[in-house]
Design a protein that fits this description.
The chain has about 325 residues and is of the alpha/beta class. It is built from 15 helices and six strands.
């Protein structure tokens, strides 16, 4: 293997439970690289099991960045991630090492590579008001309003995608400028960061089995319920509350659902999330895929990923589904 041919900035992405951590550790060791996490929940402290952050012993093997660095009482955005991650990557490169970006948050990868729309940050009061209206009148009403405010943004947003509809209206209410106008300004000012992206994939049935196995291990071996109870005692931010499993565990702790019901609902949510992740990553231009068989070791998968990396040219990450 000719390491000089491998891009200085490499990303390993894929759906939850596909095996990114084990493969990335092996790749990082072989490349003498440092890992920059690309996970919206692993940035938070006090929830290593819920976020499935790399264990301390794994982080001792290879330097990791952007893990366990934000209090769960604080909101954290893709824009903040972009700033911190770019700083970390530059520091790694300045020390003569490679940067290995690892995670499953496609929005963060997009923000890191191609930039973020510099629209105003979330206005919680405006957003809360819009969500209440959405719940009472429906997303279709808000979508019609968006068509009158910003037809260009509306064309890129599904009429049922309440989250993005609300964000587009919120930006206009707060700034007096359409979201599409902010997009244009950001595209003109962004310096792209070239990243070679490798995606890890498994057969759907196998991935679902791995999701179920990991969740049961979290519950019965890693005591995730105790961790969730402790986290729920804090004044959690809106973004920290989005960690998978927390709402379902909270329902169980409140005795609204049984343990069996909690497991079933939680597993279903994670399976749906994995499907959305794959949809996002398939739209990345230039991504190269490594499909792992059930019996394949992480060392073998890592070797195949590095063989691909030798043939890749780093490019800015572009996807077909992007908005602030």
């Amino acid at each position: 293997m000719t390491l000089v041919l491998i891009p200085r900035i490499l990303a390993i992405v894929g759906p939850t439970a596909v095996g990114k951590t084990a493969v990335s550790l092996e790749v990082a060791r072989r490349l003498d690289a440092e890992i920059i996490s690309c996970d919206s929940m692993q940035v938070y402290r006090h929830m290593p099991v819920l976020s499935q952050a790399p264990a301390l012993e794994q982080r001792a093997q290879v330097p990791h960045h952007l893990i366990d660095c934000v209090e769960p009482t604080e909101n954290f955005s893709a824009g903040q991630y972009r700033t911190l991650a770019r700083t970390a990557i530059q520091d790694v490169l300045n020390r003569g090492k490679r940067a290995l970006i690892v995670g499953g948050t496609g929005l963060y990868l997009k923000a890191l590579s191609a930039g973020m729309c510099e629209a105003p940050p979330c206005d919680h009061e405006v957003r809360k008001r819009l969500w209440l209206e959405c719940e009472s009148r429906g997303a279709a009403v808000l979508y019609e309003r968006l068509l009158g405010i910003d037809r260009a943004a509306a064309a890129k947003i599904h009429p049922n995608d309440a989250k993005r509809i609300i964000r587009a209206i919120e930006v206009f209410v707060v700034s007096g400028r359409s979201l599409s106008n902010w997009w244009t300004d950001s595209q003109e000012s962004t310096q792209p960061l070239p990243i070679a992206v490798i995606g890890l994939a498994r057969e759907r049935q196998e991935l679902c089995a791995r999701i179920a196995e990991r969740q049961l291990d979290m519950i019965f071996e890693q005591d995730v319920i105790a961790e969730a109870r402790a986290v729920l005692s804090l004044s959690l931010s809106l973004t920290a509350r989005q960690v998978h499993g927390l709402p379902d565990i909270e329902q169980h702790l409140q005795r609204k659902i049984s343990l069996k019901e909690m497991i079933a609902v939680w597993q279903a949510r994670v399976r749906q999330y994995a499907k959305r992740q794959m949809t996002w990553f398939r739209h990345i231009e230039g991504i190269r895929w490594v499909h792992s068989a059930a019996e394949e070791t992480s060392e073998t998968t890592a070797a195949r990923a590095l063989e691909l990396a030798e043939k890749m040219q780093a490019e800015p990450v572009h996807t077909a589904t992007w908005s602030n």
